[in-house]
Design goal:
Length: 531
């Protein structure tokens, strides 16, 4: 029998670069493409395969690039098209892959398409966006709310209609029921694919099609005042409509016109709905992002259940993936604490499925406290008090102990974490026991060990706050034992085992031969190679 072949995005690790904050080459305090190029050796040496870069396209930056005003250009702040071509080439020279962010659900209100669309009711581009007459009382056409607060409908004086925006009013939603819109975005995808881009991460994929009748969303019975206003409703009619799967399939077809490319979907949905995005016969997204580790409480039993539910729900041939952090959520080291952040990294890098690492998490970067008068994120500014600011997890990458952690020679667009003198790449790279050193070793082990990057997942039953599982490929077998609490736990599996500790959060245990029953100290995580 022929050996099954695994693809780069199945075997390899993805790393998210938030370009404004990764590396600034020109001293304007904002990261840029030449900055990223200068750090590609770092990513290569770290063991990364796919580099996903959040939006770098022309944009008024109302939502820091998630409001695109030209789908086939480069924002001058980030560089030029030449810089982009060089970036692609340098990534490929290092045998890595480049993944771009595609934001098809909405454009900027300054996009030429929207300028034309808003001109008049019979403009040829009118139907490229979602326009509706006011309700009989003059108010918005239905009760849909914006994720960033307030009604999702904005009244436009000029033509006396409302347009729909799931996010900011500066981010009008495109009408994906219109075939011209589909073609326009598919052509933009082809533009980048022809340039050699290896894939896309598609922004808010589950938002792309809305109920044709625009029915009101039902109230959320679990809503309370501490939540943002969007949580008042269940977005039953404004997101995750059946027809979205036709769009995803079409996007996949575009990607499949080229060899070996990748389609990732950003989707916040429960597992049963999420896995539908793999598409019938896996003709949808290759990787519908699995955000469970971002959302679940840090409890072994809950995480274990989620892993098993996910494994059970995956379609045949559907490839799993796990995400521990991104530019929209508090950093893992802040959510679970420094000690458990190591357990979390061990989990991410030993679970079955493609891992995505958020820049800086490999160092153990934490959320940075941003003074109220310095908040930049519209999500927070729009709904003071309840809208979560995403600035704290978007602060500059910490490269060394010089001014501004070596990120910029100018004034950084967001303040840096005070501890950057110790917590930086240069300091930690070779330092045994540091978070970066620890993660480098985990990545190295994963990349070199088929059991860890393509092996089967085998659950192991444990009690209390322990999480355990095995990974197996042919005769190679690993056992993971992770203590998700800070108190001692007893590991007593119902099978016999013996093996050698390859990586431990307490390095003095590495190399030890273990077997049978174990007393697992608080915050201890073990990656054990079984005999
Ligand atoms: C999801 C992105 O990750 C987030 O940063 C952005 O604000 C919204 N989509 C709107 O594009
Ligand atoms: Mg710059």
């Amino acid at each position: 029998m022929k050996e099954k072949e695994y693809l780069w995005w199945q075997k390899g690790i993805i790393y998210q670069v938030y370009p404004r904050s990764f590396m600034d080459s020109d001293g304007d305090g904002i990261g840029d493409l030449n900055g990223i190029i200068s750090k590609l050796d770092y990513l290569k040496d770290l063991g990364i395969k796919g580099v996903w870069i959040s939006p770098i396209f022309p944009s008024p930056m109302a939502d820091f690039g998630y409001d695109v005003s030209d789908y086939t250009g480069i924002h001058t702040m980030f560089g030029t098209m030449q810089d982009f071509d060089l970036l692609t080439k340098e990534i490929h020279n290092r045998n890595m892959k480049l993944i771009l962010d595609l934001v098809p659900n909405h454009s900027s209100n300054e996009h030429q398409w929207f300028r034309e669309s808003r001109r008049s009711k019979d403009d040829p581009k009118r139907d490229w966006y979602i326009w509706k007459d006011p309700a009989p009382d003059g108010g918005p056409p239905n009760n849909w709310l914006s994720v960033f607060g307030g009604s999702a409908w904005e009244y436009d004086e000029q033509t006396g209609q409302y347009y729909y925006h799931a996010f900011l009013k500066e981010q009008p939603d495109l009408n994906w029921r219109n075939p011209e819109v589909q073609q326009a975005i598919f052509d933009a995808m082809r533009f980048w694919l022809k340039k050699g881009v290896d894939g896309f991460r598609v922004d808010v994929m589950w938002h792309m099609i809305k109920d044709e009748k625009l029915r009101d969303n039902p109230p959320n019975p679990d809503y309370n005042e501490k939540m943002n206003s969007y949580s008042r409703h269940i977005s039953a009619y404004s997101t995750d409509q059946d027809e979205v799967h036709d769009i995803v399939r079409k996007m996949r077809k575009v990607v499949d016109e080229f060899d070996d490319r990748l389609l990732i979907g950003e989707i916040y949905l429960p597992i049963s709905k999420l896995v539908r995005y793999y598409g019938e016969d896996n003709q949808g997204a290759h990787l519908p992002f699995n955000f469970q580790l971002l959302e679940l409480p840090w409890e072994a039993k809950k995480i274990e259940a989620a892993i098993n539910d996910y494994e059970g729900a995956l379609p045949d041939e559907g490839w799993p993936n796990w995400v521990l952090g991104n530019h929209d959520k508090s950093r893992i080291a802040t959510r679970v604490g420094k000690e458990q952040a190591r357990i979390a990294a061990m989990l991410l890098l030993t679970l079955r499925g493609t891992p995505t690492i958020y820049y800086g998490d490999e160092l153990g970067m934490e959320d940075v406290n941003i003074p109220e008068n310095k908040i930049m994120d519209p999500q927070a500014l729009n709904e003071p008090g309840v809208g979560k600011s995403r600035d704290p997890e978007r602060t500059p990458m910490q490269w060394d102990d010089t001014r501004n952690a070596g990120f910029t020679t100018g004034e950084p667009w967001l303040p840096l974490m005070e501890n950057y003198q110790e917590l930086n790449v240069k300091e930690q790279w070779e330092k045994k026991g540091s978070m970066l050193h620890f993660q480098r070793r985990l990545i190295n082990l994963r990349n070199g060990e088929p059991a860890l990057h393509i092996g089967d997942h085998i659950p192991v039953y444990t009690e209390n706050n322990l999480l355990s599982y095995m990974r197996k490929y042919k005769d190679r077998k690993y056992l993971m034992v992770l203590n998700l609490s800070d108190s001692q736990e007893n590991f007593k599996p119902d099978f016999n085992w013996r093996g050698k500790v390859r990586i431990a959060t307490q390095p003095e245990m590495e190399g030890e031969e273990l077997g049978g029953e174990l007393q697992v100290k608080g915050n201890l995580g073990l990656v054990i190679e079984l005999d």
